[in-house]
Amino acid sequence: MSRMSVRTFLVTAKKQLRQALKDNGHASFVIGNESADLDSVTCALVYGYLQSSRPEERRANRLLIPVTNIPAADLTLRPELTALLEHAGIKPSELITLDDLGKLPLPLSSTSWTLVDHNALQGSLSEHYSSSVTAVIDHHDDEQKVSSESNPRVIEKAGSCSSLVAHYCRETWDAIASASSSVGAALGQSSDGVVDDAAYTSTWDAQVAKLALGSILIDTHNLTDESKVTDHDRKAVRYLEARINASPKFGKDYDRKAFFEELNAAKTHLDGLSLEDILRKDYKQWSEGELTLGISSVVKPVEYLQDKAESDFVQSLVTFAKERKLQLYAVMTSYTTESGGFARQLLLLSLDHEKSSDAAQSFAETCTDELQLQDGKLDSLSVAGEGVEKIPWMRLWDQKNVGASRKRVGPLLREAMR
């Protein structure tokens, strides 16, 4: 089998998944974390596409199926994803989501799972498939849930997991691109078909490079966030931009700043979303013993969220948390101030559970210095009134350590829960 575009790969992978489910066959998956942010989605796409494009996989017609770790309905909450996918000729509806998997356990004889942008499955997938994880590439703290014999087992610090994926796949990608360019004549005439012509494949390589690059630029704020940027990110950007510039179609018009600004504008445009939509747009949760923690990451300040609330703001947060059976719930905001600076806030609630309030208090006492937490204006939040439940414990902080994202705050909260 010759090479295919990333869009054709997705269509083919979805068909192969349906057939495997029907035949009680085997399937290999690559899946990002349950927040399904840009990095998670594109890591799965890029890794699945490049690994499936290796000659031995193509000859055997084996595909590594990339799964976006949310229901299909939640794709509409991610305008930045839609904007980035357009650069690769992909529609959101063509992604493979949890809906395509169906009910768990899957009617498959066997599965294997590669994790990208996380190193421990969560929720129902964890219950059924944690023992089937065979590979991981991630940039979060190592939770020691994946076997040391997994291959690859790459868990390193980077601003974006896409940088680690690009680095790991570089040798494979170079070999695939070299083989395509040496073939010469096209085996087909469709710009989205299955061919081995360099003119087409350089375009496809540029599309895949843009998927990875977009995530890196968003995660590192165009390589300007020194608290996040590593050499992995800088090297990945150079490599991916070389892939883009090698394409006659994409190279001539590529501009990094314009590309970043397009995606960032889409990411921060939340006006069409409800408060609940915003809270679940970039959401992750974990369990530690009998406590469950959820964290929503939001690119607007708390005041913006208050204005979004159709009823009492705090009650809306409580309802959101209770629907997910949480004992601890945090909202982390990150946004650009009117003066052009970068700011963070952290809002933490404990819900009707003595241990969760103890955990919240422990977090406040032990992490204030590291995170440089300063008390915010809680009196601006409605905490009492008709129809509003009493909150056992709630704090709002201005987080002056703006380099500490959920990747750091999440583990700190989980440690306090233990």
Give a written overview of the molecule.
It is built from 16 helices and 13 strands. 43% of the residues are buried. Helices cover 45% and strands 17% of the residues. By secondary structure, the chain is α/β, with parallel strands linked by helices. The chain is globular and about 65 Å long. The chain has a 6-stranded mixed sheet, with helices on both faces. A 5-stranded parallel sheet has the order 3-2-4-5-6. It has a two-stranded antiparallel ribbon with strand order 1-7.
Instruction: Give the overall pLDDT as a whole number.
Output: 91
Largest sheet strand order: 8-9-10-11-13-12
Largest sheet: 6 strands, mixed
Give Rg in angstroms.
22 Å
Strand segment tally: 13
State the helix count: 16
The first-to-last residue Cα distance is 51 Å
Give, in order, the helices and strands: EHEHHEHHEHEEHEHHHHHEEHHEEHEEH
Choose one word for the global shape: globular
- Give helix % range: 40-55%
Percentage of β-strand residues:
15-25%
What structural class should be given to the helix and strand makeup? alpha/beta
Q: In terms of per-residue confidence, which ranges show pLDDT below 50 for 5 or more consecutive residues?
A: 183-191, 383-387
GO molecular function, one term: metal ion binding
Keywords: Hydrolase, Manganese, Metal-binding
Domain DHHA2: 260-417
InterPro entries: DDH_dom, DHH_sf, DHHA2, DHHA2_dom_sf
